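Predict fold of Leucyl aminopeptidase family protein; 457 aa.
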Amino acid sequence: MNLTFSTETDAAIDLHVVSPGDHWPVSATHRKWAESAGFSGALGDFCLLPAEDGQISAVLIGWGTGRLRARGRMHLARYAPLLPAGTYRIASAPEGFDMDEQALGWLLSEYSFDRYIAAKPEAAKLICPEGCAADRLQIIATGAALTQRLIDTPTSDMGPAELEGEVRALAQMHDATLDVTLGDDLLGTNLPMIHAVGRASTSAPRLLDLSWGDPEAPKVTLVGKGVCFDTGGLNLKPGASMGIMKKDMGGSANAIGLAHMIMALDLPVRLRLLIPAVENSVAGNAFRPGDILRSRKGLSVEINNTDAEGRLVLADALALGDEESPDLMLCMATLTGAARVALGPDLPPYFTDDDGLAGMIGAAADAVHDPLWRMPFWEPYESMIEPGIADLDNAPAGGMAGAITAALFLRRFVENAGSFAHFDLYGWTPSAKPARPKGGAHQGIRALLSVIERRYS
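Predicted 3D structure, encoded as tokens:
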């Protein structure tokens, strides 16, 4: 789904963004009309102003007060699905109105998951505001929409094979190369934990390995958890917890969306995208609680819960990516419920030992309104992931500090990367918000795009 600005300027309808007490740049008649309709400029209010022929002459958009606006982001996007189909342009806005953020929000609001719906309503389109980089904003919006579509698609149409197809299409679009290691070949190429987690599914496990860019450029490696559905394995999830497990490949979807942005913007990096694509299913050959698995890195892992499978497939992919000593390695995964308990669905935590990288991530997250929150690799908890009969425990008992112990587990497989960060995403918007419909969510990738641009420009 390509999200684009309108170029039909002739019949564009003016949007006037106003706050309570502002001067409204409309006629006295239109002001009286708006006041009679109860429009005050509060956030969430809007008023269609009529022309003499009965068409829409202009629209007043309420911008509210700073305190209320601070509770959210991309507020202009809340109006896009409410306005009649047509073409609009921002004719006036108050001081401090961020045109880039609001225009991007409008584009993001145009995403809808309509694959299985016959009736597809027309959207209100926006003309790119003067001074905004239309091409760049459209690339970012399209990458974000790609992420959402991949997550929203049910596993019946987005299993490991279909996810491979999506990455193959991305590689063809950007003249990248894609290597796929499939099924039992994972054992022959020393990716045993990816094989163990995915072998019980009727769709074979696989590692997707995409490369793009100048081989001499700084190496940036993205690793995304591609568990296309998670039953919990033999530690079977209850039905209520399985309901949205199509989103358990949200880490890979976000990595794919970010990869699209990097390649479409032609950033000066050597990009590598690694996705272990599996389905955690139940069958006679499923891996079991109590099993001890050997990893690519050689570390042994005791399985104390087959529902803690994401860190297993990521561990082999991280070890593989780490072998070429990338300058930057970013790991994205819908990994732990503990992260959601700590920070909720909208604020993903991330972990890194690199204070400089953390500073860049924090600044970028604030600048582009793509929230992320740093949490620690807390060294005293290392003993919690050491079970005694193996090098590592995939699910420490007690349930304490689950997001941190999972991050510590992953860090054991990264030694050579110049900088490493792990992002524990939710990948889902539980209820619709401006520019974020209910369903699959892009999280952190706009901030990370900004980091990569600053780091390598």
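Residues 13-132 form a domain with the Leucine Aminopeptidase, subunit E; domain 1 fold (CATH 3.40.220.10).
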